[in-house]
What does this fold into?
Amino acid sequence: MTTEIRSEMQTNGQETATRRLALVASKGTLDQAYPPLILATTAVSLGWEVGIYFTFFGLDILHKERFESLKVASLANPAGPLQVPNLLGAVPGATKLATRTMKKWMEKSSMPTIPEFIDMARDSDVTFFACATTMGIMGVSESDLIEGCDIAGAAAFLEFAATADVQLFI
Amino acid sequence: MTIESTPDIAPTATLDTSGLLCPLPVYKAALALKPMEAGDILELICTDPGSLADIPAFARQRGDHLLDVKDTGDKQVFLIEKGTGQ
It folds into this structure.
């Protein structure tokens, strides 16, 4: 056992106050949908209170007909699953291939899908704020979204985030 | 309790998260600890390369007590005593 871990173990039990995590999920690609959901499900496991504000393209993560088919950008994404010259990311089918490759990686690593992560987060009482402005701009109605979203504007989310210990924009 | 001479502790429950990556080990550990009583002990088996950093943080944040860590390189076994906070 390392000294570091030993000293960490000796501070056990000193962190008991409930903490709060406030996340903004602003992107609607498959690769960018994972980080907020991973952080949220981790935080609730630590006993934290968590809210995610889904705004602009991030709202697709809550969209019943879109959240199963989020895609990985094959163009302008040099670290993406397709290790080919960037320009080839523009050819027909490249996005599909990049998406399929990433989904295979996730499945091979036993990682949950986005809908499964949404269920995990919802079962753990993560609050899903659906950005009302985005809904207006993009013509998304409440019935387009999964059950249990709080439709809210920036003021409601900022009030939640104001007392958060950790706030992150993704 | 001393870390150096860990007595044989009989866990109340065992959870094997071999092959699973973050956040699943902590997510499943939290689910496993939920029905347990304060003072009960969860034996948690991990192969996630982050577990040596993550599981002590998990226990600290929840107010649980990490009683022991056994690290064999490719596998880590943690004994977590549920605290009174959750």
